[in-house]
Amino acid sequence: MTQQHASLLVASEDYAEASALSLPVSLIVASGSRSDIAFSDGGGLPLPMDQVMLRIIGQLPLSSSGKKRLSQLAELWRDRLDIDPPAEITLGMGDILDSRTKVLEWLVARLTEQQQKGAQRSTRFMRELGLLRQQHEAIQASFQNLEQFVYRHGPQHRTLETTLSPVSGQLPITLRGGSRLMQRLPGASTGLSDLAIHISNETAPAEGGMLNVSLLSPDTNETLAIWEVSAARLEQGWLRFSLDRALGPDTISLMLNVSYQGEGVVKLSSAVQHPEPRFHPEVDGQPVETLPALQLWRWIAGANAPIPAHAVIQVGGRNRLRRVERHTLATAIDLESLNSTVPLFQSSEALLVHVVPQRVACGILPGIALPGARQVFATLATRHAEAPAVEYQLALLPQDQRPHKPGRLPDFDPKLASGWIRLAPEEEGQAHVLLPEPLDAPYDIYLMTRLPKDQHSNAYGWSTFSNICLQF
Known about the structure:
Blueprint: E1 7-11, H1 15-20, E2 26-33, E3 36-40, H2 49-55, E4 56-59, H3 64-80, H4 96-153, E5 159-164, E6 173-176, E7 180-184, E8 192-199, E9 210-217, E10 222-230, E11 237-242, E12 255-261, E13 265-268, E14 270-273, E15 282-283, E16 286-287, E17 290-292, E18 294-298, E19 307-308, E20 312-313, E21 321-323, H5 326-329, E22 333-334, E23 350-352, E24 361-369, E25 375-382, E26 390-398, E27 421-423, E28 429-434, E29 443-450, E30 463-471
Parallel strand pairs: 1-2, 1-4, 11-20, 19-21
Antiparallel strand pairs: 2-3, 5-18, 6-13, 7-12, 7-15, 8-11, 8-18, 9-10, 9-12, 14-17, 15-16, 21-30, 22-24, 23-30, 24-29, 25-28, 25-30, 26-27, 26-29
């Protein structure tokens, strides 16, 4: 590309005389007719109009014919480009040394003026850049505040976008110790926040094994996330892996890398066959026609949201806030029978622990409070205007101490219980369990309701627990 620097415009017939002046600026030569003007440098290389406009600081006529040719360009500057013609350097009669001196004086004045204007522009740009930085910082701070507010209080459910369900009768994809599966993920990367694979093992592999999962981008040759799962957790069903923050707006290709180290085998359920070979998974370098069963979730690109209660967090991830999502709420056990589940309320976002007379109604979320949790809280509400007042309690109990007899309410450590909270109909409240130390093992969460002593009817007692969260 032609270097952009200060130049003088001369007519072709004046080029030899202008070159003899040995000026410290380059020359641009104008040639051709009024309707077909061409520009070139001293070596004859054609120059585009944008280069000419950027470089010219003046025009130098040295003959009457040259002055006439340059005056023909006035129409080009004014009519076609809507700018004033370059300033003209006027020389009188004299020898070449006198002409060179006058041109140099003109150049010094012109370049000094341009330097001053350039310094003024730089000063103005620096002020404007400072203002832009302040505005950018204010926008970033506002966005972070908004993100934090939504993170704590807004709709937080990462959206399940794609499910490749296990197909009955398909042989599973088997990983033995040292085996590796590579799978190109379908769909765009923008906003990807979670992925899940389906384990078909009837029993978990031998203890000591480890499943390693990573998310890679072949476009950037970058590892985006790494997860590790002990063999004891590889039970039949979906195994979900979460990112702290959804992937950004830039679209990249994604590869899923799953490997197993340990004794026994890990069986991944198979889904459909993909017609495109580039989407066929590879196990130890050999292509497999059927895709592994997959689920993909999305969230706002580049933003974070609370992690689902049962998800595996990435290595080095910040395990800050987990939320019990609707599909996990649906697994709550009714203490009264220990073999039936507690119903969800109409919106499916809340668990209905319907208050009953003369005893405590209780639902159990099994093993939801994972090691490391420091606080558990839930939103409470009785969702009918004609309901009685209802008392609510939230409590934790180690998973291995779960009652074996239906209807038997265990004794709770007061440090692991919220105490009873009385709420009027349609009054919203919260129950909190603030733990003195982080949990060191999985705990069940007990959701309890009862009628106060002055209440005897449970009509319309639609007592619910929602927005159940664990702070780590």
